Amino acid sequence: MKFKKILVTGFDKSALDENVWSRIGKLAGKIVFEPTSDVDCLFSKFNKIDKKTIDSLPNLKYIGLLATGYATVDCEYAKSKNIIVTNIPGYATESVAEFVFALILETLRNLEKAKQTGRRGDFSGDGFTASEIKGKTFGIIGMGRIGTRVAEIALGFGAKVLYWSRKRKKDIEKKGAKYQSIDILIRKSDFLSLHPNRNKETEKIMNEKRINAIKPWAVFVNVSPMELIDLNALEKRLEKGNITFIFDHPDEMDKRDVKRLAKYKNCIVYPPIGFVSKEARILKQDIFVSNLENFLKGKSPNKVN
Amino acid sequence: MKFKKILVTGFDKSALDENVWSRIGKLAGKIVFEPTSDVDCLFSKFNKIDKKTIDSLPNLKYIGLLATGYATVDCEYAKSKNIIVTNIPGYATESVAEFVFALILETLRNLEKAKQTGRRGDFSGDGFTASEIKGKTFGIIGMGRIGTRVAEIALGFGAKVLYWSRKRKKDIEKKGAKYQSIDILIRKSDFLSLHPNRNKETEKIMNEKRINAIKPWAVFVNVSPMELIDLNALEKRLEKGNITFIFDHPDEMDKRDVKRLAKYKNCIVYPPIGFVSKEARILKQDIFVSNLENFLKGKSPNKVN
User: Fold this and answer.
1) Distance between A175 CA and the closest CA of chain B, angstroms
2) From the CB of residue A212, how many other CB atoms can be counted at a distance below 10 Å?
3) CB A7: neighbour CB atoms within 10 A?
4) Secondary structure of residue A236 in the 3-state scheme
5) Mean predicted lDDT score pLDDT of chain B
6) Phi and psi (nearest 5°) for A10?
7) Which of A101, A222, A255 to mutate to test the interface with B (most CBs of B within 10 A)?
8) I need a labelling partner for A51 at 20 to 30 A (CA). Which of A253, B221, B232, B281 fits?
């Protein structure tokens, strides 16, 4: 079975490699970039797909998202029209987990300054100091795919890993991580990294009380959405100067909020590059096309509605 | 038992913390910084201690080195005079091992540029890409203290770890590292890190043939002395542009040699900061004083002669 006509929206040709387009080509009569009413498959990324869009495509059977998130799609309405929506979960797990350690080690070793010092030909090493990860307490909030990999890597470094998660995860406990209540975990952790699912319950999970409870001189990393954090409380804590906060999703925030955090020297802002590894890009595209192929074979492992 | 008089050479008061000086104070009648002939204990770091120095101190019983290396001391001559020489092995193991990953991740994630981009307020993420450590081959030459920790951390990242060492090390093999001949290891490794003992056999262990055999696009890290590498061959390989080389001991090299390597964009020079962690500093001083205390109790665990 094949699709008659695929409509691509929300991204352009460069978002997928050529070999991926040729795999897709085998699954469709035609691929178009402008809407026509006889489309039976719709590609999308972060663009809105509401009732109106769905109603404008009466033959639609499948919506393939080139993204993990699907809050932009009216999934219930799609379901009522027998349209299946698929996403791409977990493609960047490793990329994001390794990025957490890249960020922590960059800070602990003062690498930006070190690289510049070396480039200038100053090889004295004067003024540099560092901290080790081994033996420290590494707190992880949320033990899903990414949290699990962060835990495994932290254990390799010889850190004491504490985690809190909605459910206990026996597998990571067998490897040495210890379950802890969120409030004790926050007080004990020298390194703190957030990896819970984003939903109403986890919104501002780092509330004022918890932000104030972060161990002095801890390194607090958030490569997850900033909705997890009470920004007013974070700003106050940054002003005190006794934590370092590192994040990489300024792109999803109000610019004024980024500015009021980034003005503190102990706040490091990266562009959103945690998920950009070559391996993640390949895996993402592969899952995207596999979703299509599976649907045409009557299977849909990454269905979200 | 106590020393009568300790002579400090090769470093000044700031090299040791105050509490360490007070521990030393309890072990000696006097501590001096200018030579007198009645000295029975000598502190030294990298300064030369030859026959002449030893003959000038007829009461000398103990030379305590605030360093791991002891090539600067005429250990045989000291032994013939019944003088014990002690060093400080392994104090920076963890600091150096973690530094290897700091360097690799900084490069893989392009963090210097990312930090600057973020500081400028450019949150597009455009132009960034990255590679993951997981699933790659991580080659380690030399499986002593530091090599072992590098292997354990690499295994935590999910790398396939290959190692070559003068002797096979079963403990790390049980954890998943595989022994390999040095030449095959070099050809297969996506990441390559050198940690052999420095001696005549390991001088230029990375000879021209081996440097040419490094896998294209590998990241080659050397936080060990540069005597391990044939610099002419390395320069030629850097010129080809298909490896990245990162090192942190420019301070021990001829300045012209540093310059001819550092001129290549794919060569990254850091100041010698791999061993500077706070934890390493504390451990180093503690071992230094423990050596003294042990000697006075008739024990000398870190004797090198």
Assistant:
1) 11
2) 12
3) 21
4) helix
5) 96
6) 85, -10
7) A101
8) A253
DSSP letters of B237-257?
Answer: HHHHT-EEEEES-GGGS-HHH
Which DSSP category does A198 fall into?
A: P
Cβ-contact B131, B108 below 8 angstroms: yes
Rounded CA-CA distance B274/B150 in Å is 13
Is the pTM for the entire model greater than 0.90? yes
CB of A125 less than 8 A from some CB of B: yes
Per DSSP bridges, beta strands A219-222 and A191-194 are parallel
**Placement of tokens 């104030």 in the chain:** A212
Select from A17, A98, A222 the residue whose CB has the most chain B CBs within 10 Å, as the one to mutate to test that interface.
A98
d(C-alpha B159, C-alpha A156), whole Å: 11
Q: Are B232 and B208 in contact (CB under 8 A)?
A: yes
Q: Which residues have a Cβ under 8 Å from the Cβ of A91 and sit 6 or more positions away?
A: A68, A275, A280, A283, A284, A287
A171-217 confidence digits (pLDDT tens): 999 999 999 999 999 999 999 999 998 888 999 999 999 999 999 99
Contact A44, A73 (CB under 8 A): yes
CB B86 within 8 A of CB A93: no
CB B151 within 8 A of CB B172: yes
The 10 Å Cβ neighbour count of residue B70 is 21
Give me the sign of the Cα torsion angle B235, B268, B91, A105: negative
Asked if B272 reaches chain A (Cβ–Cβ under 8 Å), the answer is yes
* Beta-bridge partners for B160: B137
Residues B106, A105: C-beta atoms closer than 8 Å: yes
Nearest CB partner across the interface for B271, out of A114, A158, A280: A114
Tokens standing for residue A250: 């300024």
Alpha carbon distance, N-terminus to C-terminus of chain B: 22
How far apart (Å, rounded) are the C-alpha atoms in residues B292 and B277?
23
Residues in chain B closer than 8 A to A280 (CB atoms): 132
Could you give the domains of chain A? 3-91+279-296 (3.40.50.720), 93-269 (3.40.50.720)
| pLDDT one-digit tens code per residue, B203-261 | 999 999 999 999 999 999 999 999 999 999 999 999 999 999 999 999 989 999 999 99
Identify all chain A residues contacting B276, using CB atoms and an 8 Å cutoff. Answer: 125, 128-130
d(CA A215, CA A165): 20
